[in-house]
User: Which sequence fits this backbone?
């Protein structure tokens, strides 16, 4: 199949999932065309089966806002015609489903049929898409997609609750390639560079936005390090980073907290981590938790959104109510204070992650594509 994929090319989970999906589909013989404003961060293997088409938005003094949707839909029309693309898969509704719909309509004028699959990822529904400024356009684009998928049951329920949706939403969870994380193959884990042997390593990875409750990460760690020797690795960049650095200074724990910035090599950090903290306000899935779990890292998270579908309470880690810093700290200590318990949770995390193995999930998308092609044949 010849498939065009539209996604955010940045470090966010939706872009990573879309990129990994494209690469996996290419390995299975499909021809994949990524269409976005820069090369996706995880797309390091451009090959004959994988192409990247950059969307340029020319600057013009009249424009206060550059019309990205317009440029994206035009680019899609051109790519579809040039490469005989059969299907479009857009990740993150805003503005991709909207631009995809416009491309679909423009192509239809020329007698070209382009089925569109839209995957909802989270904040396109729960935070941004739900805003009255966007809601009519998001509702319209979801209702006019040929197939709609969501990355968790919780996100499906939220979509049905917040929007007037006419078509079915299929749940296809995010996935991970477990074979890449086989400890026997990966021998480059440089733990000793980061912490002393006696110290436990706690990690948080995100885009440091308000929804991630970065201050809770610091407060939980503060309580942990009072009881045991520990270090905190803060990975990512975003608007809340400065406030987090200030809080670390205020609590006088700067020697125990490392801000590592954005990283292309999170597996190198996760390989030496013992515990992953994700105290988010909202999280439709929590892909970073899954990345931690596949590396055998226990997770203490909130019980919001799709997190209980990923982090299994008492097996891969623990779940607490949003803002319950006290409980998240005591649960973290429960995992970290005893080496046998820690090992049990690490193994539990890896086992749960295996349910989300790429081999189980990519065929679900292939089935969806086949059905979408059959349904929309004119
Ligand atoms: O949080 C965002 O807005 C970014 C978005 C993204 O593009 O990564 O994250 C959402 O999609 C991820 C991939 O499906 C999910 O793992 C995240 O849970 C989800 N974020 C939220 O729901 C806050």
Assistant:
């Amino acid at each position: 199949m010849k498939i065009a994929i539209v996604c955010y090319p940045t470090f966010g989970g939706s872009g990573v999932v879309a990129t990994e999906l494209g690469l996996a589909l290419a390995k299975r013989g499909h021809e994949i065309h990524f269409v976005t404003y820069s090369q996706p961060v995880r797309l390091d293997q451009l090959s004959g089966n994988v192409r990247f088409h950059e969307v340029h938005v020319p600057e013009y003094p009249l424009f206060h806002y550059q019309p990205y949707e317009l440029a994206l839909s035009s680019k899609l029309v051109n790519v579809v015609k040039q490469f005989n693309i059969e299907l479009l898969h857009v990740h993150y509704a805003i503005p991709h489903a909207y631009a995809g719909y416009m491309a679909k309509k423009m192509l239809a004028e020329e007698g070209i049929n382009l089925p569109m699959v839209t995957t909802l990822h989270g904040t396109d529904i729960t935070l941004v898409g739900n805003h009255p400024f966007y809601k009519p356009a998001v509702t319209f684009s979801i209702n006019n997609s040929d197939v709609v998928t969501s990355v968790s049951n919780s996100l499906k329920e939220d979509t049905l609750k917040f929007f007037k949706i006419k078509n079915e939403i299929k749940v296809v969870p995010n996935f991970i390639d477990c074979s890449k994380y086989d400890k026997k193959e990966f021998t480059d884990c440089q733990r000793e560079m980061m912490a002393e042997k006696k110290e436990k390593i706690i990690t948080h990875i995100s885009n440091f936005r308000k929804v991630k409750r970065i201050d809770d990460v610091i407060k939980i760690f503060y309580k942990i390090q009072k009881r045991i020797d520990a270090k905190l690795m803060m990975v990512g960049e975003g608007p809340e980073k400065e406030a987090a650095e200030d809080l670390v200074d205020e609590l006088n724990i700067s020697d125990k907290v490392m801000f590592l910035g954005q990283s292309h090599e999170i597996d190198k950090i996760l390989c030496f981590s013992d515990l992953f903290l994700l105290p988010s306000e909202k999280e439709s899935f929590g892909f970073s938790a899954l990345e931690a779990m596949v590396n055998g890292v226990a997770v203490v998270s909130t019980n919001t959104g799709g997190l209980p579908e990923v982090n299994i309470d008492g097996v891969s880690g623990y779940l607490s109510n949003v803002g319950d810093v006290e409980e998240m700290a005591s649960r973290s200590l429960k995992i970290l204070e005893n080496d046998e318990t820690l090992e049990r949770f690490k193994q539990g995390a890896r086992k749960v992650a295996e349910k989300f193995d790429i081999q189980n999930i990519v065929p679900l998308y292939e089935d969806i594509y086949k059905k979408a092609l059959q349904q929309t044949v004119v």
The pocket of GMT is lined by residues 8, 12-15, 17, 92, 121-123, 126, 151, 174, 211, 282-287 (CB under 6 Å). The longest helix spans residues 358-375. The CA atoms of residues 33 and 51 lie 5 Å apart.
